[in-house]
Design a protein that fits this description.
alpha/beta, Rossmann fold, TIM Barrel, six-stranded mixed β-sheet, 22 strands, about 30% helix, elongated
Length: about 575
Amino acid sequence: MLKISIICSDLEHPIYTVLNDWAIKSQVLYDIQLTENTFNLRAQGDFLFLVSCSEFVRKEIRERFTHSLVLHASDLPHGRGWSPHTWEILNGAKYITLTLLETADSIDSGKVWMKEKILLSGSELLTEINTKLFTAEIKLIDLALEQYANIIPKEQSLKTVPSYYPKRSPIDSLINIDEPLSSQFNLLRVCDNERYPAYFERDGYLYTVKIEKQVKLIMEKTNKFITIDGRKIGPDHPPYIIAELSANHNGDINRAFKIIEEAKKAGASAIKLQSYTAGTITMDCDSEDFQIHGGLWDGQSLHQLYQKAHLPWEWHKPLFDKAKELGITIFSSPFDHSAVDMLEKLGAPAYKIASFEAIDLPLIEYVAKTGKPMIISTGMANVEEIQEAIDTAKKAGCKQLVVLHCVSGYPAPANEYNLATLPDMAERFNVLTGLSDHTIDNITAITSVALGACVIEKHVTLDRDGGGPDDSFSLEPSQLAQLCRDSKTAWSARGNINYKRTESEKGNLTFRRSLYAVKNIEVGEDFTSENVKSIRPGFGLPPKMYKQVIGKKSKEIILRGTPLELKHIES
């Protein structure tokens, strides 16, 4: 086992923690000593690494090790001194070069083992720059230990005069408040908030500035959830399922009552109505503009369709009372100001703006002024129209808003839904999102949950063959129950970002592969590919140690079927 010593002079330096973590992780491979000076250095060893070492290590100490190497954050011999990479960044450097070289009597003048170029994006702050640098330092140490037998060190070529970087001091972090901060960005990047914070002086006072990198701030933050009738709606809560009654009452209030009952049984979060009359949504006119050609409602005029489909206003109170009796939330889509006034009297807890009304900004404004939560569908609307609707609602006082992605086809094909729009909509408009789904099954709706939809709206009927205007593309009760169940499962499966082992995995760790003796092995016998294999179960050394084990000798008799341990292997 290689004997490795590392000198890191500053115990408070972040690299010390990184080195210590690496030492703990690598102790199964190497005999590692991490110290802050030469006083406690071991008598002899294979490797001595100097990392952030501030003392000169004398030749007689270096010669106690087979290899004595220093890590330097510059492209030696062109730069040396105190944290040269920070000075290089101040001068506009787009990358850092890390050099691993042999120690010598003249500082940083030994032969070069290897170099690593660390590319920078130009936006990193000091902590991020150091993280990239520390990662590269560990990488070079690992490579040196793995490949040292094949490395041929190269002499440095002194083609230019070496640059010496002085130690940073507080004055180096002084901001000129008479100049734009953008022109001093590289200075701000390398300021240390603890030791050398950015600062400026004004009227005899000294002001320090803490430099932090954050996601671009949006003045009006997205609500993590909204609340309708006491139910929280948002990405951290199960999907809010809206059963849209629409025109599926087919002119029979008892059928409407039954749909509410079935929605409750299925587990829907809310039942939604549509509040209009033929006279408030269109006009009775025979001109061509008012005729429907093609689709489910071919041959009818708009007035004829809405006369048949509308929910009589006198039904609203009985339906609200029924929903309250059953314990299911009920609200509606108003299509004009008079509908809003009527719904306000009934105590509607929220409002939905239909896709076809998403461009009716006066209606959106009137609804928003109620102060109730709003849901806006966006079928047929382009980016500008969606933004106008959102801006209008917020300006008029809406504090709780969900925007639904929608395709206003009846039915709509799944391949036109482009569900990738959902996360873009959430980011672009800074809103909670959901889906108004007009496809004939549940696949699109359930998939939308994985992309962030927190509200799903589906038309619901008692019978797809009922003959009503919307029956043919609506869900029957059993399908609604399936949607409620499966969308919640999809939400649960989406969960959070997680790379840790889950509870269900922990019991299977023993079935992973590990190193086992597959033949009897005598004392002093070499470990070979014939007597050691990576197999299941997982009680032996990890397979990544296979190359380190092969070629070593056994310290004791090992019987076939024994999991290999470090105690079996000669150093």
